[in-house]
Amino acid sequence: MSGETSPRETTVLAFSPAGRALVLAGPALLGILVAVLAPILARWLVDVGFPVLGVVWRVVASVDSWWEIAVQAAILAVLGALVSVEIVRRSTRVTIGRAAVRLETGDRVVAVSRPDVDFVFMDGSFLVLLDRESRQLFHGEPQADRAPLERAFREYGYPWRDGDPFTGLYRPWVPDSGQLPIEVDAVLSARAVALSKKAASEAGELRGTVEKLGYAIRDDGDRQLWRPLVRS
Q1: In which residue ranges of the chain is CATH 2.30.29.30 found?
Q2: Does the model's pTM come out above 0.85?
Q3: DSSP annotation string for 89-133
Q4: Residue 149 burial by Cβ neighbours in a 10 Å radius (0-12, 13-18, 19+)
Q5: pLDDT at 45 over 80
Q6: Class of domain 1-163
Q7: How confident is the model over 73-113, as pLDDT tens digits?
């Protein structure tokens, strides 16, 4: 991944040419490779009498004509292309300037003014921007790697942190535990349902509702973690 400085004194952090080629072509090529090699591997396992072979493997082993392999390769290539589209749609192109940060994720564009940003850090593979009350201004998976992101944010004077400064404040959400106000508990219950349905947009809106009630949310796999908002 790379970043390039433009004449307008902004830095754009997106896929490098090699990274973009890998994202766009990699899944489809992997699908074709699987289509060609899987029958060979399956037949070998059958021949050596591998003790645990399910129905799927036996069906794969029966694929031995060129047209069956071609059809299988075409199907997996299409599925791979769909994966590529989803990766590009969900990843974020970051444009950093001295006055603001522009974050483009698919058709969604978020512009955050520099004075509003009090914390910038990576949470795993996700870029996070928080305001002075530790509310989430942005949370998304950037196209660029951590190193160029950190370098660019520091260059433009943004408060980059090595990790989430509020990690120690988070607690696991337990429904009806009495630790949170009833209205917050209700929103987190609704958000748990949204997360189980993979409804990212709805989950994001409910996160905003929780923050308006004075709490921050962080996802840890299937678990929701919460903490009070903190003024810096």
Answers
A1: 1-163
A2: no
A3: HHEEEEEE-SSEEEEEETTEEEEEEGGG--EEEEETTEEEEE-TT
A4: buried
A5: no
A6: mainly beta
A7: 899 999 999 998 888 888 999 999 999 999 999 889 999 99
